[in-house]
Structure formats: C-alpha cells, structure tokens
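Recap from last week: sequence in, structure out.
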Amino acid sequence: MPKVGQTRLLLVLFQVSGLSRAWQPIDAPVRLPRAESPAGLQAKANSGDAKAWFTLAEDYEFGIGVPRDHSRALQWYRRVAEAPADSANSALVCESQCNLGSAYYNGQGVPLDYPEALRWYRKAAELGDLDAQFIMGLGHDQGRGLAQDHVEAARWYRLAADQGHVLAQGNLGVCYALGEGVRQDYAESVRWNGKAAEQGNAMAQFNLAVAYGLGQGVRQDSGQAARWYRKAAEQGSPAAQCALGFMLTDAGDGIPQDQAAAVMWFRKAANQDISAAQNDLGVMYAAGAGVQKDDHEALQWITKASENEASRNVSDSCCWAIDHNRSLLRSGITDASRLGLVFPDINRCQLRREWWSFHSRKEEPVSRLRRQRTTEPSQPSPEIKPTAGDYRERAKDTKPADMVDFVKQCAELGVPEAQLDLATMCATGKGVPKDEAEAVKWTRTAAEQGDANAQAQLFGLFYAGDMGVQKDQAEAVRWCRKAAEQGNALAELNMGLFYARGNGVPCDLAESARWIKSAAEHGRADAQSYLGWNYDKGCGIAEDKAEAVKWYRRSADQGYAEGQCHLGWCYGNGNGVAMDKTEAVKWYRKAAEQGYALAQRDLAVCYDAGDGVARDPIQAAGWYRKAAEQGDAHAQNNLGVCYKDGDGVGKDAAEAAKWFRRAAEQGFPAAQYNFAFAYAFGMGVTKDVGEATKWYRKAAEQGIKEAEQRLAELGAGSSPRR
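Predicted structure tokens:
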C-alpha cells in the first residue's frame, strides 16, 4: 500500500468544494447551542482558559444562557485582554482589547473615557489589529482621546493601509492630498485612494474621481472621473450623484449625453439635501431636459436649494447662481437658457475622511445620533408638529447645549425621527440619564407611527430579547415585516432569512428569495451575496450561475468580503464565468485581507498548489495560520500538514499534532485521520494505540476509507506501514 506518511497526508489538502452559508438574521446575535454545559465552561474559565473567558464575555454581552450584563462581560473581556498574546489566543486578545476600547468610548458598562478607550485600542494596534491601527489614526487625526498629531495619524493609517485596510487607505490618501502629517503629494494621494476605491470604498471612489477631474496627481481624464463618480454614486454618495448628473447633461470628453440619467442622479442627490443637485434638478424641469417641462417643480426645487442651510457650505458663486435662478423663476422668466447649472464645489465637498465610529464590532440594534452643527438654535413651534424635514433642518441649527431639549420637544410633538433619537439618548445615557425602558418606549412610539427605521429597531429588540424587552419571535417577525414592507433593506433581508429558516413563519424558500432580492436591489452588499448564493444553488429561485456571478460581483464591488470570496470561488471553478485562476486569487486576496477566514484558507490553497499564483509555501502557511487562528478546521488541518512536512514552516511534529487536534475536535474527518496517525506512530504526541483507534474510528465513520484499513490493521495486531 502507499506510504501513508507521505501520500495520505498530502491527499487531505482539500480545495473548497462548495459555498457554505450561515442562515441567520443580520445585526441580531444568534448562537448555536453550547457544546458543553455552563458548569463545564465555568470550570475551564476557573482553570485559566482564555477561550472560555472570551466565551463567557460574549454570553454576558448578548445574554446567551445568562442575564445580559455589560459589566460582567467587560470583566471577562478584560481578563482576555490582559492575557499574554501567544499564537494560540492572539486573535481573542486583540478582539477583547478592541471591545474594551469600544466600551470606554461609548460609556457602555463603564464610564465614558476616551483616553482609556484609546489605550486599549493602542494595545490591539500594537498586536497588529488593523481596525485598531485605523482607530489610532483617527484618534490622532481628530484629537479625541489623544493629542491631535497629524504625523502620528498618518503613521497609524499607513500601518493599517499597508495591510489592506480600506478606510485607512482612503484617509492616508486624504493626508497626502492635504499635506497633513506627510509631504503634500497628489500622486501618492491618488495611489492610496485608488487602492481603497478598488476595494469598493465610496469615499475613496469619490476622491479619485475628483483627482481625475482636476488632473491632480494623475493625467486629467473626464472618462475616468465619470467612471469613479458613478461607482460612488451607485453606493449612495450624494455629491458623486450630483457631479455625475452634471457630467451627463452635456456630451463631451468622451462622456455621452444622457439627460434622463442626469435627472435621475440629480433627484437622488437632491433628496439628500444637496443644494447644487436641488438647483440643477430645478433647471432640468425648467428646460424640460430629461423630464417633462414643469415650471412649478422647477421653482420648488430651486427655492429649496436657495433656502437649504447646506447652501452655506458651497462657494459664494454657487450661492449667487442658485439665488439668481430663483429670482428669474419667481419673476416668471422660465427660459432655460438663462438658468444655470451648478457643479458641486470641489474645494469644499470633496476629499473627506472616513470618520468611522468607535462602535463595538457586534453592533447594538439602536441607531446613533446624527452629527449636529453649532449655529443659532431654532426651536419648533409648540403648536405645530414639525415634519421630518423640518426636524432635520432645525437640528442642524441647534447648539449642542440645546440639543437634548430640542429633541425632547420634537419627540413629544410626535416627530418619529426625534423619538428615535431620544430613544438612542436614553439607551446610551448621552445627554440624559440612561434608561432602557424609556429607550424602548420611544422606539415603540416611533414604530407605531410607521417609522421604518424604528420598526426595524423594535424588531431587533424583540428578536434578541434586549433592553428589558421579552424575547418574542412572533413580535420580532411582525415588526420586521412592517419595516420591510416600507423598503427597509435590513428588514427585507431579515424577512428573507426568517423564511429560509422557518423562524416565526413557515419555511418558504421562494418567499425567502423574494425578500432577499428586494434587499439586494436596494443596495445591501450582504443581501447581494446571499442572492448570489440563491441563484448559485437554485435555492427558492431558478438556478442561474451567470446571475449568481452578477450578484456576487455587486457585493464584491462594495467591498463585502463574503461576496469577494464567493466571486473568487466562481472564477476558480468556472462557475457561471470563464475559469480564471488569477482572477480567483485576486478576489480571494481582497476578502482575505479583510480577515475573512474562508478566503484566507482558499488563498492559502492557491499558494500551496501554485494555482493562479506562483507556488509559495511560506505564503501558504501564513494564510493557513490566519484562517486556522479563526477556527477554520480545513486550514487547521492543512497547517498541521505544513508543520508535519516542514513545508513553508520549520518541521515540528508537536505543532502538527496540535493543529490536527484542533481540527479533529471540530469533526473534520481528514484531521481525525491525521491525528489518529500521529498517535499511532507517536508523531508529536506520546504513542497511544487506544487514542489512535478512537480517532481512526471517528474518521472511518465519516467515510475515510484509509481509516477503516488502519482499524483493521490495529485489530489484527500488525504495525502500520510507513
């Protein structure tokens, strides 16, 4: 028979054979039942097991088997965070340090303390956590929790950016454009914004479009500018929508005229209160360009632009043009040739940083307050209920010191957005005493008035049993459906997942696919990835591999790691697209660099086999390790093989046995065979025929034929052959 020590262990370097899917609602914590009893977990924790500490922290954070208790959760997270970060638990240590940083930043379970938050983020950053490095850059950039220091900000951004962190890449690009913390260098700005833009970051796509439009750091190219504006616009960037609309109003520089499309983009931006877009939409109505001529609509939109507070954020010439257009229309002059379009003011609107919130990686189902401006307050009349638009506009004019009273007054007048903001204040204790019961009351009040966001929040509370709300699947589904029927994309996705799993509704895969498709068409990257999977497997919808690739690509183009990984798999296997191993590696890498374990494993396999990339055992072992440390059993097994053979790492039988054990304990059949083999021959563990027999039997029960042969040999008393 073949030499098992050589041939069999190489046979178990498995390729990905299919697309796995964890069907669970987004933004609501769902956990599988614990494999061991709470007493067993507590015993492990008492013996110093860092993984048990982390599990207990999560249990208290999400109320899994115990009452939800942020303070107790943080006590366990702190134990992990203060533990030595060795190879076995470094990921848990980093995660715990970041969770402590988030808690101190948000005052959740501990007093709000920005310096303490940044102290914990620094620890994680120094261990190599990319998000923490990015947050350190933000801390120095904003001067919050740290002394403002643009040089340090740029240094931390670079550390994360060099490892593929998309937001850090975009912010480093802005540093180079503005000369903050680094020498001003437009070419470097383009390079970094380009990296982030290629990963799907809308802000970077926008900044890259500006560079091409102005010819800053790159050859001026209107076609490229329009291309990147479109990518950002499709992700909802209002300034990009306005700029793209402007470019489509007239042919030139290789950009075909499309006035109907221009109107569509102006309208999208105008609905987000972009003054230039409101003006330009009005001009299009006056001209009957791309839309039926309507002087009344023209005057309405241009008046809105003129009165919009946002117009103070553009140049004087833009303000003059908007006011001039309004004056002409009010005078009855509707000749479109005398009205002027306004291009968004690049010097003021563009090159914005990503001010990423310091939230927990496990987000709470409660929205955050919008940023406020500090100008003169404008309180609502007590006799008149403000509209949502009135509330937003007046909030912009309200000083921070007056904001709480303003929000309360609007909430009591029945403004759903204000009610939801007040709920957020009560939930977080920001500006008012923390009171979860009040938070729930105001969320329900807004939801009962038909506010889709509040309905989605209420769904999350009933689903998770959070903030004193009794867990209630039927109520969760009821509120989720209400929000979904109003087009709330998150709720649509969750309705799809409810129907897929039969949670609170009958299992109905066709209905599931319908809701997921609606969420995907509303632009949710995670829903687009799910929809791709539905088409790929014919789950509730006719199987269509090409359509699957289309939706995976949409998800991937937004930077969603799972979509990138699935798209890579399609290229690697010729699934709905021409096989292209190099393209597969490109997409695996994008997802892997975001920390997605499946992609890290798949990229490792490519390096291991020289598939789409030059064979590189060191790179293979490195990516196997990243996935293995996240618990991927395939990667753990294959990393064990690397240590057994000394392929890309130093030969180390004990380390090989360690990784085989981890994968075997997760039920991975190849690893069970390999672990049995290690016991049979004393490879990295003490030789133990009983243990070998146990693990061979487990592997045999899962269909490993060689394990059956080994069991027969052991039963006959013969020694395994080498």
